[in-house]
């Protein structure tokens, strides 16, 4: 039985607590939040104990692993404390706000001999996972372009810390990172980015929009849009290759379409019914399964750090109006050098 502590009892902490409580072989033993009432409320829902003393919970013997779902600017202190307490860590995305911060968190876990997985959950969404599998099979031939969009209401309207870029990283680091991480998973490292955003407009803070063009080392060209100026949430992605097209739009009834010249193409029905496993449960199941069998995570800290590096490059480009080469990150066997990095279309071994 794995005993897990949830740190941060807000929106994502609640999602993770319920998901963890539903997994066989996993028990939520503690919920910790600096807001004691929130901790107690969530703990009551999953049969856990509650505390406002995060360090005390992390040091307990009845905690084997920790899910970190605090605001992004607090990730580092909680992850480092969990590592020092000898607990395996699942940390929400974005892993950190800076690359030195991300590297320090990875190093702290390495030093302590604990494992670190990041919640880059889009890799666990059935449509995006299926696109990855189809690309691996060569379903659209050689990929030329990809367009990805992620449009949402401004999260600062219900949680004020999101509106402060010093706490959330802003639209690109908080939201666009989902698609940047997914595209890195599909195509490997980016060589160069160019981006624009509206974060300097007077309405920024409540409305924001960003668009990035990305050239990958394999020559693929990406066009990525993110918005905090919409009503409601929607995502879409279109991957075009020399043998066809893959298309997903969260607002369509058919979740994944293919088009091929000279053929009728096909529609893949990807399960999105509430009866199916949620991607959040799937990623936590992956976390606990990989802890048990010792196999690598699909989204280890290093992968999340490389996706953060890409997001920071996009943000720098939007700020400076200049094309930017993402900073390299050491992954596995060595540094990921832009233009020479290894694509990492690993399978979801969920
Ligand atoms: N993967 C996704 O789809 C997704 C979606 C939304 C948010 N997130 C990420 O999840 C994280 C949490 O976001 P949220 O929307 O749940 O935030 P939230 O504001 O709803 O909840 C955060 C909770 O953490 C508590 N907290 C703050 N500082 C703390 C500390 N030092 N120790 C313990 N508790 C502390 C707060 O009291 C609050 O209850 C963020 O990093 C965010 O980017 C991920």
Ligands in the model, by name, code or SMILES, are:
nicotinamide-adenine-dinucleotide
- CA(first)-CA(last) distance: 19 Å
Please indicate the percent range of residues in DSSP E strands (runs of 2 or more). Answer: 15-25%
Low-confidence stretches: 337-350
Number of helices: 10
Main β sheet profile: 8 strands, mixed
* Tertiary shape: globular
Helix-strand pattern, N to C?
EHEHEHEHEHEHEHHEEEEEEEHHEE
Q: Which strand order does the major sheet show? A: 8-9-10-7-11-12-13-14
Alpha-beta content class: alpha/beta
In percent, how helical is the residue content? 25-40%
Written description of the protein model:
34% of the residues lie in helices and 25% in strands. Helix 2 links the parallel strand 2 (26-32) and strand 3. It has 350 residues and is an alpha/beta fold. The chain has ten helices and 16 strands. The chain folds into two domains: 2-114, Rossmann fold, CATH 3.40.50; 122-276 and 301-335, Dihydrodipicolinate Reductase, domain 2, CATH 3.30.360. An eight-stranded mixed beta sheet has the order 8-9-10-7-11-12-13-14, with helices on one face. A six-stranded parallel beta sheet has the order 3-2-1-4-5-6, sandwiched between helices. Bound molecules: nicotinamide-adenine-dinucleotide. Residues 7-13, 32-35, 38, 54, 69-72, 74, 78, 92-93, 119, 121, 159, 174 line the site of nicotinamide-adenine-dinucleotide.
């Amino acid at each position: 039985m794995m005993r897990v502590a949830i740190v941060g009892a807000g929106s994502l902490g609640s999602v993770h607590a319920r998901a963890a409580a539903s997994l066989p072989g996993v028990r939520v033993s503690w919920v910790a939040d600096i807001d004691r009432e929130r901790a107690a409320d969530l703990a009551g829902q999953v049969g856990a104990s509650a505390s406002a003393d995060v360090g005390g919970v992390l040091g307990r013997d009845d905690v084997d692993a920790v899910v970190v779902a605090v605001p992004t600017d607090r990730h580092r202190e909680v992850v480092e404390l969990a590592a020092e307490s000898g607990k395996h860590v699942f940390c929400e995305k974005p892993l950190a706000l800076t690359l030195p911060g991300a590297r320090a968190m990875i190093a702290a876990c390495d030093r302590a001999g604990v494992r670190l997985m990041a919640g880059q959950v889009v890799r666990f969404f059935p449509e995006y996972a299926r696109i990855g599998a189809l690309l691996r099979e060569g379903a659209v031939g050689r990929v030329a372009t990809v367009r990805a969009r992620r449009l949402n209401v401004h999260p600062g309207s219900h949680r004020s810390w999101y509106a402060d870029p010093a706490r959330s990283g802003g639209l690109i680091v908080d939201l666009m990172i989902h698609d940047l991480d997914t595209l890195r998973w599909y195509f490997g490292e980016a060589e160069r980015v160019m981006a624009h955003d509206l974060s300097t407009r007077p309405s920024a803070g409540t409305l924001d929009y960003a668009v990035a063009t990305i050239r990958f080392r394999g020559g693929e060209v990406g066009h990525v849009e993110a918005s905090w100026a919409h009503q409601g949430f929607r995502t879409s992605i279109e991957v075009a290759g020399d043998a066809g097209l893959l298309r997903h739009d969260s607002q369509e009834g058919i979740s994944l379409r293919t088009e091929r010249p000279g053929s009728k193409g096909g529609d893949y029905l990807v399960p999105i019914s509430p009866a199916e496993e949620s991607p959040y449960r799937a990623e936590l199941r992956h976390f606990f399964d990989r802890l048990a069998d010792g196999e690598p995570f699909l989204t280890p800290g290093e992968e999340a750090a490389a996706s953060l590096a890409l997001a920071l490059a996009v943000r720098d480009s939007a700020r400076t109006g200049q094309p930017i080469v993402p900073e390299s990150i050491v992954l596995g066997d060595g540094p990921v050098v832009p233009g020479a990095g290894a694509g990492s279309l690993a399978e979801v071994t969920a």
